[in-house]
Design goal:
By secondary structure, this protein is α/β, with parallel strands linked by helices. The chain is built from 7 helices and 16 strands.
Length: about 260
């Protein structure tokens, strides 16, 4: 099954980082957040990716063209047709289609441009800036159980500010950025049928607007509720929060490290 990842946005709220690279290539723990997202899917056996590129897409191409080549131990034998001998073999079984979808194309337009590469069956879709400890197998089983065209993952976002509990005037608990207890938002991690692409008019269509609104109107949109960790990297503050989680060793979304 194909996994589509939209990785073409400019990430203007991360301008300090995205002036030199696209937002999905901003690093957490020394790896692009795009890599973290792909590792989540790969953990469940989904290794066939279609990445929609736009702004500074050459950065993504260069990264994967050299992936693994510059890591580990090397022997260089100059004068040979292939001078580099690698001592550590990359076992990441990924196939990645890197598709140019235009600098100004919106999310729906990017997805529609991927149609020739998605195959004829069910496929998955997510944004190139959000991570979660989501169970992809359960998500897919939910999608198959209801028979509709689209499944969206609903999540509870992290609170923007610290949360306190009181006894009188005494603070008895303080949580820096807990998940909110109320409200559900679009957490991406979609499962979609090919007919969903017919809901997209063209390049200037936001997938989050008319396509999802019309799918809901037609009774074709179902929500998989993910109660666990989820976070998007929209701002520098978000990036620093994710880095703090990673550096602490908690690494909530790194499900591939737990087995």
């Amino acid at each position: 099954m194909k996994v589509a990842i939209l990785a073409g946005g400019k990430g203007t709220r991360l301008a300090e980082e995205t002036s030199v690279r696209p937002k999905p290539m901003v690093e957490i723990g020394g790896k692009p957040i795009l890599w973290h997202i792909m590792k989540i899917y790969s953990h469940y056996g989904y290794n066939d990716f279609v990445v929609a590129m736009g702004y500074k897409g050459e950065y993504i191409k260069n990264y994967f063209a050299q992936y693994g080549t510059l890591s580990g131990n090397l022997t260089i034998q100059l004068g040979r047709p292939d001078p580099v001998i690698r001592h550590d073999h990359n076992e990441t079984p990924w196939t990645i289609d890197l598709i140019e979808t235009g600098d100004e194309t919106l999310t729906g337009g990017r997805l529609r441009r991927l149609k020739p590469y998605l195959g004829r069956g069910t496929f998955m879709l997510t944004w190139g800036d959000g991570v979660a400890n989501i169970d992809i197998d359960r998500l897919l089983a939910f999608h198959r159980s209801h028979g509709k065209l689209a499944t969206i993952t609903a999540v509870r976002p992290p609170a923007r500010y610290g949360h306190m509990r009181f006894e009188g005037d005494a603070v008895v608990a303080f949580e820096e950025k807990p998940q909110t207890a109320e409200g559900w938002i679009n957490g991406a991690f979609f499962v979609l049928e090919p007919e969903v692409l017919d809901y997209i008019d063209g390049d200037m269509t936001m997938f989050e607007h008319a396509p999802l609104e019309n799918l809901a109107r037609d009774g074709q949109l179902m929500a998989y509720r993910h109660e666990g960790f989820w976070s998007a990297m929209d701002t520098l503050r978000d990036k620093h929060t994710l880095e703090k989680i990673w550096d602490s060793g908690e690494r909530t979304w790194a499900i591939w490290e737990r087995h």
